[in-house]
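Technical note accompanying the year-one report. For the benefit of new consortium partners, we illustrate the data format agreed upon in the data management plan: each record pairs a sequence with a C-alpha cell string. No post-processing was applied to the example shown here.
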Amino acid sequence: MLVLAGSIMIVLFTSYGNKKVHPDLNSLMIESFLKQNKQGSFQTNSFNNYSFNLEGLGKIKGTAVTKDGLFNVNDVAAGGVIAGIGAMVEKNVVAMVYAEEGPAEMTPKQWIITGGYSADVPEIPASLRHFYDPTRPAGDRYLTDITNAKIMGSLQKYSFTNPKTDGLKWALGTPGDKSNGPQDHQYTWERGKLWMQMALKETNQDKKNEYMALAWRSLGETLHMIADHGCPPHVRNDAHPSPLWGNNSLFGNPDPYEELMDIIRRDYPNDFIAFAKGLPDPTLKQQIKSFTKAEEIAHALAVFTNTNFVTNETISGKDREGNFRVQITHPQYPYFSPVLDQMTYDPVSYCYVSSTGIKQCTDRYYFANMVPKYCEPFVDIFCVQSQAKVLVPNLVEAGANVIKLFIPKFTVEINSLEKGIIKGSISHATDDEYLQEIFYTGKVTLEIKNSSNKLIDEKDANAQEGVFETNLKLAKGEKVCAKIEFGGVEVRSDYFEGSETGDVIGIYQGTYDIQLNAANWAEADFERWLKNTTPDNNPATWEREVQNSKESSVARINAAIESRNYVVAQAKESPKIKFEIMKPQDGKDYYNISGLKYTVYNSAQFITVFLPQHLTPLKDGSNPGTRISFAGNGFTAVTIVDDFTYTLSGTFAGNMLTGNWVATAFGKTLWRASFATRKTLDLN
C-alpha cells in the first residue's frame, strides 16, 4: 500500500504542463516585452538607449534543473517516502523522488524560459506554494483547500504540513533573505535582483555571466507565478491534483483549464500562440503600466482573474432553472463574482456567458432527461478556449511589465574628451524595486565611427563605481559612444563628437529642476496688475478691486503650480528642456547678431512660462532689455518679459551644457532652476 501511495504521489503532484506550457508562456511574455520596447512603448522613458539581444550574444553558464523530482535530495520529508517504499521497488523508482541540479549553458532568453519549468521543481514543495487567493486577508492567501478525494485528500492532509505560504510570497521572497534549506525557494524575485546587482559590480566576466544566469532564471521563476495568477484555480484556492483518470472520489479532480490548455498547446500550437495576440483588458493594462513594483502587478492580475473567471469547483449561483448551486470546494467561502445568475445562458452552445462575452461553463442540457448529473455546470474545452482568449493577453501584458521592472535603469554618458583623455559615467536611477543606487563596475566598450557612420574601431575601458576614464583621440569627423553589457542587455551613450575642437554648435537636450516660490509669484502677479491698472475714483470700489486681484493672483498661481505638479507626476520623469545653439548668420538671422559667438534658443515645450524662448536679442526689438554675454566656456543671458527678469548662465563641457537660471520681479525671487543637457545633434 505504501508503494501504491508513493507511486500515486509521483503522478498526482506533477504540475500540469510545467515542462511545456509554463515555458511557452514565459516565451510569450519575453516576446511581448521586446516588441513593446522595439515599438517605443518603453523607450520613451526607461529604455531609450537600451538594446536587448537575449539570444545573439552567446550562452552563459549557470545552474539549472537536470532531473525532475518530487523533493530536494536533502529534504527530510523525502526520507519518509523512501523509507515507506524501502526495498520493495526498483532503484530507478526511488530515484524519481529526488530532483537534481547541475551546471548548464543557455542564452539569457533560454534561462528565463526554463525558469517557467524549474519553478515547479522540486514538485511537492512547489505544488503546495503556488496559490494566491486575493479575496482572503493578507497573510491568509495560501492554499487551504483539501482536495475532495479520499486518497489524495488524505495524503495532502496528513502526509504534508501546510507551509502557509502563498504563491506571491513564495515567488517574490524577502529582501535580504538568504535561507538555504531544502524547502526554501532559491530563485526568488528578490534574490534575482541581488544577483543582478552582483553582476553589475563584478569585473570578472565569467562570474558576471554566472550571476546573470542566476538572475534570469529567477526572473523566469517569477514569471511562472505571473502565469499562475492568470490561471483561475491558482487564485481561487482550488486544489486540483491531476489523477490517473477523470474526476473521481479517490484521486481527485483535475482543473479543466490547466489540463485542456496543456492539450491545446500540444495538439493545436497555433491556437495556443494566437491566444497571446488578443488585446489585454484596457483598465487592467493601465493599472499594470502605472505600477512600480512586481507585487502590485501580480496582485492586480490575481484580482482580475479571481473576479472574472470560474473554476470547475467554484461555480455557484442560480442556474437557468432557478436552482441555487453551491460551489464544490470550500462552500463556506464562496466567490461572489462571477456567479451563474450574473451570466446569460446561451441555448445554442449550452453555455453560461458572462457580460464580457466569456463562456464560463456549460451544462450540456440535452442530457437532462437521460443523465441529470451531466446537466451540472462544468468547464469544457470550449469554455477554456473562451477564457484563454482573455486571460493569456492579460498575463502576457503583466509579464512584460514585470520584466521591465526587473531591469535596472542606467544612463551611460561621455562627459568630456580633452587632451586625449575621455571621461564618462554610468548612473543608475533608483526606483521602487532598486532602492539603493547601483554603482556599475566593469567593462565599458568605446565604439568609434567615422564621418560615414561606419564602425572603425573598438576600445575597452574599465569603470569603477560608475566612472570611467581612458586615453582616446579622435580624428576630424570621428565620433565615439560608450556602452555596457550585462546578460544580453546593452546600454549606450549618445555619440560624442567634435568636443576636441571646442565647437558648441548643436541641439542639447536634458532635464531641469525648479523650485517655485508661490507667495512671491502671486505677489509679483498682483504687482504687475497694479502697475497696469488705473485706480477707481471710488476708494471703496478700488479697495474691493485690489482685494479681489490679490485673491485672484493667489488662486491663479496656485492653480498653475498644481496643474504643473500633476503633469510632472503623471510623466513619472524629470521635466525636459532643450536648447538650440546656432551660428549667427548675417542677413538670414532674425537675431541682432552684432558681437555674437552663437545664439541661444529655448525650444522646449511647456516651459515658456518659466523661461522665455529667445535668450538672444531680436532684430525687431520685440524683446527689449535682452542681452547675452560670453565668457570662457559659457554664456550669461538676461531676458526681460512683462516686468519679469530671467537670468540664465550656461557652461559647456565636452558635449554637456549645464547651468541654472533665476526669475525675479519687483524685487522678489519667483523661482530658481538648474538644468543638465547633452548634445544630441551636431549642427555644423
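Partners are asked to follow this layout when depositing records. The chain has a mean pLDDT of 85.
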